[in-house]
Design goal:
heterotrimer; A mainly alpha (282); B alpha/beta (291); C alpha/beta (260); A: 282 residues; mainly alpha; MetI-like fold; 0% strand; B: 291 residues; alpha/beta; Rossmann fold; seven-stranded mixed sheet; 11 helices
Chain lengths: 282, 291, 260
């Protein structure tokens, strides 16, 4: 089935911004996937030093310039996208299933389940994501990327619970749910095979929008030193390291910062496009 | 017959929507006329285009993918392509509408008195809340609502279906419009209440000489209420005549199919239906001779 | 076959007590097409929901084949009473194909082996006059009448003995309604079913039901054989209901009872 010819794509592309967003996201994904092939200095990603070429401004040899120990910033930005996208995918792969399952159970199983699950959710929702993530990382050993991912997932799942809980509550009054109950379908079947498919438009939209935000939160944590540790090329860390060198050595912070901006913007535009296309509210 | 007597004249009206799958032809050159004070029914099933006709009369279809053609002449003026500002002057004043579900027509978060006030502002945009209240109470009393103050202070959900529809009808008629559009006004109501609503509409419109265009799929309602009938099938008017002509001597096979499909009180069994009905739109229109 | 034994139910909404059903006693026998007639607020839908196990009655008992039936039902108990809803738009899951919708009851009640699933689904569709092309379609491409036919096929899938039909044709156009009603009668004969037909439409009742009960605000106004109730209605409310029917023939007008 040719995706571009479907009715769905037609509806999606009515807004030019959505198409721009989709192009940005596709571009970033391609960059990340093919990083070893397109970057000029893939060896600069690992432990590498070249003090002869340190802090060089952008040139034809080093597109984005070099950092304090001579590594090519352009190469490290592209590899940085790998880290960002991995972060986004892993976090949401943990947060979404947990949140969705809890939301379905809270919305459908019964009053007692609803009470317990939603109170737990409310507690987590009351704490700002960044603060919660920081506390969790603080409790663990030395900070690293894995811990960052776990921490952000813990801060993220309640939002899915809330979304799915609300959707479940309205969907469960629909005729086809009653029909399935009368037929003798089990609660598990009804939650996952009848209700969940009807939540997909909202769910997919939210996941897309969240990818951008997770990357932003992850970068903020890295900026504070709580994310990926050197020599891993993480965009947030790079911005942090270059912050003290501004404004003279501007290229060290600007390009990674810009890279973050582009990817978050892309996901936001795609998310908005999906929101319009599916006509949902997340 | 002088043109000035015709309150509403729809001439060769066409309507299509541009969709992803292609063009969708909803109305295919329909013609319809209404005299001042006349009660006309436009009867058809779902998909016939009867409801969009009212939307066109009120200027409510203006999206990019809507294509309109033909004329809607109201009071000697073609209103098909008027601006929204012009329509605002006409709506609620010269042309009023009642919908199928009174609860959908009434805003659930405002009291009845507030909603009446909005309607009264169409009549005179300087009317005070106090005068508006009095005007509305008088109108409610005239329709045999004995405790108008209680109704005015209520929210829509506190009223029964029948009472809500009476309120909606009163609101629609309070500014004495020249034309009342009634889109399936009794379908959401219980049968006993349905007749009361129709009687009320009949009564009020007679007092103010308001013409009524009744949109419905129910032939029984048509028989009770209308003087003249247009039968519409998939965007085409297939029969036109007075009530007596249509019910005593239906001319078009579609009208016959509609009448036959209704289960009868005599209990002779379920109506038989045609397994492979023809495309009724291809059979030429049947116009009864005018009297 | 189904005995409603002194059933009452009330609802409490915002400090208002609504007596939806008060001491209802009915007997529905095998092979009946039993109509429950009433306007909104009569309690007819509440009664249907109790029979289906959606609500639990406050007082009284429900009997099916001389066994008492409670709200909680096992899968075996669910098999025998199925239903068709009023609103064709919401009765089918928009995200499931027709095949998937029909396969569900077949799987739950193990009607056929998995290999024979597709054949059985085609068979069900043929009972309701739809060809096998419909299997891969989604509900949003079907008309109201077609959706109701699928709903009927789904109800038949578990091989029930009783069908509860809650205003199954009220949302349909009159010509489509005639087709679906005829279909329902054919199926009743073919599979020897008992129908409980809930409606406000007396003209339909007159031609499809052999027995009826008229309900008004939770109480029984009148019950009996259809032809008796129509030719000789005893309650004033019943007379008003019959009188209010929007008839289309003069001959029908004459059949209406006079109101005192």
């Amino acid at each position: 089935m040719n995706i571009f010819k479907t009715k769905l794509f037609y509806k999606y592309s009515r807004n030019p911004l959505s198409v721009i967003g989709l192009s940005i996201v596709t571009f970033v994904i391609l960059l990340a996937v093919f990083a070893p092939l397109i970057t000029p200095y893939p060896e600069h990603v690992g432990p590498f030093t070249d003090f002869a070429n340190k802090s060089k401004p952008p040139s034809w040899k080093y597109f984005f310039g070099t950092d304090k120990i001579g590594r090519d910033i352009f190469t490290r930005c592209i590899y940085g996208y790998r880290i960002s996208l991995t972060l986004g995918i892993v976090v949401l792969s943990i947060a979404a299933p947990i949140g969705v399952t809890m939301g379905l159970c809270a919305g459908y199983i019964g009053k007692k389940t609803e009470l317990v699950l939603m109170r737990i959710t409310d507690i987590f929702l009351a704490i700002p994501a960044l603060v919660l993530a920081m506390s969790i990382i603080g409790l663990l050993d030395r900070p690293n990327l894995l811990y960052t991912m776990i921490a952000v997932s813990m801060a993220w799942w309640p939002w899915y619970t809330r979304l799915i809980y609300n959707l479940t509550r309205s969907i469960k009054t629909e005729g086809y749910i009653t029909a399935a109950e009368i037929m003798g379908a089990s609660k598990i079947h009804i939650m996952f095979r009848e209700i969940l498919p009807n939540c997909l438009p909202s769910l997919l939209t939210k996941i897309t929008l969240d990818l951008g935000f997770v990357i932003l939160v992850g970068s903020s944590l890295s900026f504070l030193g709580l994310g990926a540790q050197p020599p891993t090329p993480d965009l947030g860390t790079m911005v942090a390291k270059g912050a003290s060198l501004l404004p003279d050595i501007w290229w060290y912070s600007l390009f990674p910062g810009f890279a973050i901006l582009i990817v978050v913007l892309g996901f936001n535009l795609v998310g908005d496009g999906l929101k319009d296309m599916f006509d949902v509210d997340v | 017959m002088s043109m000035y007597k015709k309150l509403l004249k729809i001439k060769d009206l066409e309507l299509s929507f541009k969709m992803y799958e292609g063009m969708s032809y909803i109305l295919k050159k329909i013609n319809l006329e209404l005299d001042g004070g006349e009660k006309v029914a436009l009867v058809g099933e779902s998909g016939s285009g009867k409801s969009v006709t009212t939307k066109l009369i009120l200027g409510l279809l203006n999206q990019k993918n809507v294509y309109k053609n033909g004329k809607i002449i109201f009071n000697n003026r073609d209103i098909l392509n008027l601006s929204q500002n012009e329509f605002k002057k006409i709506r609620g004043n010269n042309i009023s509408i009642i919908f199928q579900d009174p609860m959908a027509a009434l805003n659930p978060v405002f009291k009845i008195k507030t909603q009446f006030h909005e309607v009264n502002l169409n009549y005179s945009n300087k009317i005070s809340k106090k005068d508006s209240y009095i005007r509305s109470c008088n109108a409610l009393e005239k329709v045999s609502i004995r405790d108008p103050e209680r109704v005015m202070e209520s929210y829509p959900f506190q009223l029964s279906g029948g009472l809500a529809q009476r309120v909606v009808i009163t609101m629609a008629m309070i500014n004495k419009p020249e034309l009342l559009l009634a889109d399936e006004p009794s379908t959401a109501l219980d049968v006993t209440v349905q007749n009361q609503a129709l009687d009320l509409m009949d009564d009020l419109t007679r007092q103010t000489n308001t013409a009524v265009l009744l949109i419905t799929h129910n032939m029984g309602v048509v028989r009770k209420f209308a003087e003249k009938v247009y039968v519409i099938y998939r965007g085409v008017i297939v029969e036109e005549g007075t009530k007596k002509q249509i019910f005593d001597n239906p001319g078009h096979p579609y009208t016959n199919a509609l009448l036959n499909a209704i289960p009868k009180l005599s209990g002779e069994g379920l109506p038989k239906h045609d397994e492979n009905p023809p495309d009724y739109g291809l059979i030429p229109k049947y116009t009864h001779k005018s009297q | 076959m189904i005995k409603i034994d002194n059933i009452s139910k009330k609802f409490i909404i915002k400090n208002n007590v609504i007596h939806a059903l008060q001491n209802i006693n009915l007997l529905i026998e095998e092979g009946d097409c039993y109509a429950i007639v009433g306007e909104s607020g009569s309690g007819k839908t509440t009664l249907a929901n109790i029979i289906l196990g959606i609500y639990k009655q406050d007082k009284g008992k429900l009997w099916f084949h001389e066994q008492e039936v409670k709200k909680y039902r096992s899968i075996k108990e669910r098999k025998f009473i199925q239903f068709v809803q009023q609103n064709p738009t919401s009765t089918l899951n928009p995200k499931k194909t027709i095949r998937s919708t029909l396969a569900l009851p077949l799987k739950i009640h193990s009607i056929v082996k998995n290999i024979d699933l597709d054949n059985k689904i085609k068979e069900l569709l043929s009972y309701v006059g739809l060809n096998s092309d419909f299997m891969t379609r989604y509900p949003d491409t079907l008309s109201g009448g077609q959706k109701q036919r699928v709903a009927i096929a789904r109800a038949l899938a578990s091989e029930p003995k009783v069908l509860i039909l809650d205003e199954p044709t009220s949302a349909l156009d009159v010509i489509v309604q005639a087709k679906v009603l005829n279909l329902l009668l054919d199926i009743k004969k073919k599979f020897n079913l008992t129908y409980v037909f809930i409606t406000h439409d007396l003209s339909v009742v007159r031609n499809i039901a052999n027995k009826l009960v008229v309900m008004n605000q939770g109480k029984i106004e009148e019950q009996g054989e259809t032809k008796d109730v129509f030719s000789n209605p005893k309650s004033q409310y019943t007379k008003e209901l019959i009188n209010a029917i929007p008839t289309v023939l003069e001959s029908e007008d004459k059949l209406k009872p006079s109101l005192d």
